[in-house]
Structures are given as C-alpha cells and as structure tokens.
Amino acid sequence: MKIEIQNTSKTYLNGKKALMDANITLEPGVYALFGENGAGKSTLMKILAGLLKPSTGKILVDGQEMSPLADAYREKIGYLPQDTPIYSNFTAAKFLSYLATVKGVPKQDVQTSVMSALEAVNMTEHANKKLKSFSGGMKRRIGIAQLLLNDPELLIIDEPTAGLDPKERIHFRNLIASIARKRIVLLSTHIVSDVGSIAREIILMKQGRIIKQANPYELLDEIATEIWTVDVTDQELLELQDTYQIGSIQQTRQGKNRVRIISSQMPHPKAAQDEPQLEDLYLYHLDGRGKSA
C-alpha cells in the first residue's frame, strides 16, 4: 500500500488554518509525527482517519485518488486516539468480539479475528479477564488489538505511550515494530525516544506545516556539528541559559552541571561536540529558540 497526501490543507469555520499544504508519501513502516501542541498533528491524523474533510488537496491510494470519507478507504485504516473508550466490565475477548461485529467482520470470522488480534499483541492468556483489571500498558495493547480486527493496511495512533511506565513503553515499541512490517503505521508522540529507533521516517510539524520528513539518521546528520556538552558551575549555567538553547542538564559527582547545548558555534571554551540524539533534533527544529523558529 502507498498513500500520497498532496497539497492538503484544513481551515476551520472560525478561520483557523490548522494544516497548510501538506505533502507526504507513506509506505509500509513506522512514521513518527513530531510537533508541539497545535502544530497540526491531530488535524492531519483525523483527515487520514476519515474523521475530517480537508479544505483542499487530495489523497492517493496506490496511485488512485480516494476520498478519506469513502467506505472503501475507511476499510483500509485503523485509528486509535489517545483516550480510547473501553467497557471495563467486558472481558478482552468479549470487548473485541463486539468491536469486530461493529467493524463488519463476518460473524463466522469474528472468533478467529479476535484470537488472531490477541495473539498479535501477546494478550491471548488474558482473553477472559475483565478490562478493569488491566494495567495502562495492557489497555493500550487491547487498543492496538481492536485496530487489527479487520486487518487494516494503515494504522494511525495518537500518543501511544502516554501514561505508560518505562517497561510498558519498551513492550509497546517492540509491538509497533512487529506489526509495521506489512503495514503503514503513523503515530504521534511527544516522547521521541520511544519511537525514533523504529521509525522509517520522522515527520516534523510546526504551525500547521510539515517542515521536515526524512530518515532519522539523515536528520541527525544535519545537526551533527550543532551538539555540545560541557561541565559548568551554577553561575556559568545561568549565563549559558541566557544565550544558548539548552537540551538537558545533569548533575555530576563533582557537583557541576553537565549541560547539553545546541549551537552552531562553540558555546564554552571547554565544550566538546557530542553525538546528536532525537531529543536534540526535536529541540533544534521545534523549540521556540531553534533555527526553524
């Protein structure tokens, strides 16, 4: 499956331009959508999910134009919002059986679809347990399972790791990587480290526009000479914060501050260049003080 979003914009009735001239090509793999609140991520995802009609532009599926509101298009996608409603008194199997029926899965195939979806998210042994007993990570896995019931080719997931502990986030990342082998997975997150390592491409959005779309390593190479670290005193730290874009601050055993700085020039006589990370990429392009501001 190949999806092309061409010159797509969305202007709401109040005149707010939430999305402007978006152009994206999506093929099987994971695409990580990064951007601050209000950047247009949710609008883009809802258009792709068939929940919003774009003001301008078109969507091509395998080269043919298709309305995101058409049933033939919706059959190809699965959408998981950040807050997914569940029926707490249902067992996992009963909940998924209900949703399979709603999605139009033939009655004779419901049981097979449910068990296949549970197996895909490693939840088979919990099939007959009530959802109210599940942890946050388990509930998110059930959310993914319901997406798979009708075997969609495009999965759209909003903030998949929100509220999960570190261990659950690792499990979730591995799950996404496994189901993306033959599907397109577009997900939005503020925790860049959770998905950057499995993303085929990263899409950066700012103020309703897509400002970058490329392989993570290509994007990191672009800022390879912009990242510095240095150990400084509290007073030096204050001075650096007034002048430079600070990525992170850690306390050293010697009582100093190990500061990560984003700068095109050496920010301190003792600063050394460091390997760029995805968090640096996010700040460089999307933070108010970055070059893309």
Automatic annotation (TrEMBL):
Q: Which residues form the signal peptide?
A: none
Q: Which UniProt keywords apply?
A: ATP-binding, Nucleotide-binding, Transport
Which GO MF terms are attached to this record? ATP binding
Which InterPro entries does the protein's record reference?
AAA+_ATPase, ABC_transporter-like_ATP-bd, ABC_transporter-like_CS, P-loop_NTPase
The record's section on Gene3D superfamilies has:
P-loop containing nucleotide triphosphate hydrolases
Q: Ranges for the ABC transporter domain? A: 3-232
Source organism superkingdom: Bacteria
Q: Does the keyword Transport apply?
A: yes
Alphabetized PROSITE patterns for the sequence: ABC_TRANSPORTER_1, ABC_TRANSPORTER_2
**Pfam families documented for this protein:** ABC_tran
Family assignment from sequence similarity: Belongs to the ABC transporter superfamily.
Protein name per Swiss-Prot or TrEMBL: ABC transporter ATP-binding protein
Which organism does this record belong to? Exiguobacterium undae
